Amino acid sequence: AQSVTQPDIHITVSEGASLELRCNYSYGATPYLFWYVQSPGQGLQLLLKYFSGDTLVQGIKGFEAEFKRSQSSFNLRKPSVHWSDAAEYFCAVDTTDGNKLVFGAGTILRVKS
Amino acid sequence: SQTIHQWPATLVQPVGSPLSLECTVEGTSNPNLYWYRQAAGRGLQLLFYSVGIGQISSEVPQNLSASRPQDRQFILSSKKLLLSDSGFYLCAWSSSTGELFFGEGSRLTVL
User: Fold this and answer.
1) Domain CATH number, residue B70
2) CB-CB neighbours of B1 under 10 Å
3) Quick one: which of A46, A70, B55, B59 is 20 to 30 A from B75 by CA?
4) CATH 2.60.40.10 fits A3-112, yes or no
């Protein structure tokens, strides 16, 4: 069965510092991969997605992610974090079974000034 | 453009009472619809999904049920709530490329 692992439950970075959130997946074929962001008490917003092609994908709010098949990873990065980036981030893989996404447990990002 | 609405946003219910959460999608036809539950520190758990009117698939055995009476309406229900039903419930629809679009969520507290 497909699974997604986000090893870091919490991450704290200083404003202006770079950020990398880790995501590893387990899936037999080439997956469709997603990163979502959730502000407290709200729904999830899509940051970016990978379907095929260029393994470095750009998203909204200055985020990017790189698909590495050899490592089964899809890590999210941002060169300079802003205080408004504080939120919970979820990585997800599409099972292609009724378009059901499997989500990781999430990483809570705290930004200190 | 497509929009998704769910209500109520917040609900406090006693144990044993019924539940009805509603979700509607606008701007698209025949969407796949989903109910997820989010418990603290546990990510999102898929509860139900539907590929059409009256077609409901349950992912986990539980105290909840779902119905799809109309193409763009998805309802989550319970006859008798348990304490363990507390959580944040998210409705979503999926595009043809598989990405999900979420509603704003419904916070349920069972006392």
Assistant:
1) 2.60.40.10
2) 5
3) A46
4) yes
